């Protein structure tokens, strides 16, 4: 159910690298809550730059895609201005530790892409009012997989091997040499396993590998 005609007007800036996805999500937000006006930006950086010059939105929604995962590493710097605009992230998946780190940086909402439009609108309004929205799975203390991120057993054998090598501190070039693969292929596979696990960068993937004692596991063995 939408917010209804009695809801207060709200201005939202939506950052999404895909124009089709950006326009589609903007239309869905407006349809769900007609009191919300939505403007678009191609990247999170361009959105923050626009907001730094003049306050044109009550909330910023950033769709985190595989192509924009590196933005998560810079978001702390972008959130430094005071008062920082409330930011809501739309993510395919998120690990509890990642969610905790993001909220510690000042993120006011995390919405899984599997959620309904009503949930997204509610999260936006909560963020704009100063509250924080997190997926119920995280609030109820469920596991990494239940919070939207596939478990480690969703990785392929090659992805497990790469993740173990990340845990050992290897570079892409070193991993490619060990697995007799092209460096570009390894880079693609790293991004894929990061997306599956809901981690923001290779460091978090390495920590996860170490936590599960993958570094000395069979995954480190060079395939035949």
Beta-sheet strand percentage? 5-15%
Secondary-structure element string: EHEHEHEHEHHHHHH
Shape: elongated
Helix content: 40-55%
- The CATH superfamily label of the largest domain reads Response regulator
Secondary structural class? alpha/beta
Distance between the termini: 55 Å
Low-pLDDT segments: 142-150, 216-224
Under CATH, the topology of the largest domain can be stated as Rossmann fold
Strand order of the largest sheet: 2-1-3-4-5
What is the top-level CATH class of the largest domain? Alpha Beta
How many strand elements? Answer: 5
Rg for CA atoms: 19 Å
Helix count from the secondary structure assignment: 10
* CATH architecture term of the largest domain: 3-Layer(aba) Sandwich
The total domain count is 2
Mean pLDDT: 79
Major pleated sheet:
5 strands, parallel
